[in-house]
Every structure is written in structure tokens, then in C-alpha cells.
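Progress report, Aim 2. The chain analyzed during this reporting quarter is listed below.
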Amino acid sequence: MLNAVESVLNQSYDNIELVIVDDASEDKTASILDDINDSRVKVTHHIKNKHASGSRNTALKLSRGEIITYLDSDNIYDREYIECCVGAFMYLDDADAIYSAQYRHTTYDSKAFAIQYSSFNRSLLHNHNYIDMNCFAHKRHILDRITGFDESLNSHKMFYKCCR
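Predicted C-alpha cells for the chain:
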């Protein structure tokens, strides 16, 4: 979890806000998160586990940024990820959402063994979500068109509903 947090706080683009949702952890996560002393970080705790969709909805309500990205606690961002997202939205000024390729590693500190990427195919999303949420970014204003993540859907279905 701290690897994920550090990967965000150490971005080359530092005008960020990091919203962390502790989804009712039963280990020492809550106290570790409460010890983070960085003005860019907001931490909140769920009393009851709400899973990925519920945690993302909580984070969306607390966030204020124009560009929204997602990172699960067992993943990390490349140091230039957010800078690349900002640049992509500047270049593609009519885009509401983007996604990127993803390096695949066996451990946090191992070399990448593969790059996972596929061209966008809306009809394929009906059958299988091939875009990992950790590589997905969108502009805040799309939240005016959707109500967030459907908490009754599993993680593979929630992305499709967002992009319809």
C-alpha cells in the first residue's frame, strides 16, 4: 500500500490531490495512513467494507481535481504517469477519458516482463473489460452524466457502464 502512495506522491507532475480510502481494513493500514503528513493527501476510512466501487465513489465525492485517475493499493504509477495524462488531455482537448498501456511486473522492484495494451473497442467492452482502472483517467465533468460506480456490479462491469 505504501508503494502505491509513494508512487503518486513522487510523480514528476506534482500539482496533485491524493484521496485514499481505507476500505474497513483490519490490519495496521488505518494508523499507517493517518501518519502520512502531506498536504496533498486526504484520507478517509470506511467502517464497513464497500469494495472497489464503493471506495471509488467515496473518493470521487472527496476529490476536487479536474482530472481523475484511479490506483489500487497493490499497484504503482510510473513516475511520469500523471504528467502524461495531463499532457494527453491537453493534446486531445475533446477527449473526456483516456487510458494507457500497462507495464506488467512480478514484484514492485522487478523489471517489466510485458506491456499490456489494446486499442479501444466499445463492443468488446460488452463481453470483457480489457482496460484496467489503474490505467484509466477521465475529466471531472463526466461525473455530471453518470452517478458514479454502480456498487452492485463487479469490477469488470463497472468500467463498461461508465463508458456507455
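The chain is about 30% helix and 15% strand. The CA atoms of residues 101 and 117 lie 5 Å apart. These observations will guide the mutagenesis work planned for the next reporting period.
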